[in-house]
Write a structure and sequence with these properties.
binds glutathione, alpha+beta, Glutaredoxin, Glutathione S-transferase Yfyf (Class Pi), Chain A, domain 2, single chain, 2 domains, about 200 residues
């Protein structure tokens, strides 16, 4: 049995989305971070004390992007996993781009717009993060002009990884109207039934 640890209110949402897109049977254990990630049992699964974590019949993995790339390669027979080496290279590129160029700035906004107590929020950090997000959103917007998805006409794990990271933009109310192609693309990806199902989980 496949088990996925982590509430959908965390980065585990992207792995739940991947499990749903791959059409897999799995058990969802909605470990949350009100202490659940730091129990001795959970630390045996992920010594970092984080979610998500995957247990695929005894094979344990952590790091959300690694889990998604693994799931797509092993189980994504319906086109989720790209067939060519070149497309797999592009998949790694865009997945790591989302994690390194975009996610840290969105997390800064999340902390300072939603998570931190109001008197500890840093508006300057939010403004800096917004400014830092403009160039990567423009990169995605330019790239997607004339393309339906990152690798062409088919939705793949590259789209899932990028769209799941960038979904935080909605939560933190980042204005992305200056990049309408990226905005429409994200809306299309986020509207997929598999994502809607994952997002509605505990
Ligand atoms: N780079 C890791 C980050 C994992 C991470 O920081 N997860 C957060 C939730 S989104 C967490 O588990 N926080 C709880 C804690 O640190 O106790 C990944 O993508 O899986």
């Amino acid at each position: 049995m496949i088990k996925l640890y982590g509430t959908s209110m965390s980065r585990a949402a992207r792995c739940l989305w991947a499990l749903e897109e791959a059409g897999l049977q799995y058990e969802h254990i909605p470990t949350s971070f009100d202490g659940g990630t730091r129990t001795p049992e959970h630390l045996k699964i992920n010594p970092n004390g984080h979610v998500p974590a995957l247990d695929d019949n005894g094979l344990i993995l952590w790091e959300s992007m690694a889990i998604n790339l693994y799931l797509a390669e092993k189980y994504g027979k319906n086109g989720l996993w790209p067939a060519s080496v070149a497309d797999r290279g592009a998949t790694y590129q865009w997945s790591f781009w989302a994690m390194t160029e975009v996610e840290p700035h969105l997390i800064t906004m999340l902390i300072n717009r939603l998570f931190a107590p109001p008197d500890q929020r840093d508006e300057k950090a939010v403004a800096n993060a917004e400014a830092a997000l403009r160039p990567p959103f423009k990169v995605l917007d330019d790239y997607l002009k004339g393309r339906e998805y990152i690798l062409g006409n088919q939705f793949t794990i590259a789209d899932l990884n990028v769209a799941s990271v960038l979904s935080l933009a909605n939560l933190v109310k980042l204005d992305i109207s200056a990049t309408p192609t990226a905005s429409a693309y994200l809306q299309k990806c986020h509207g997929r039934p598999a994502n809607q199902k994952a997002a509605a989980m505990k």
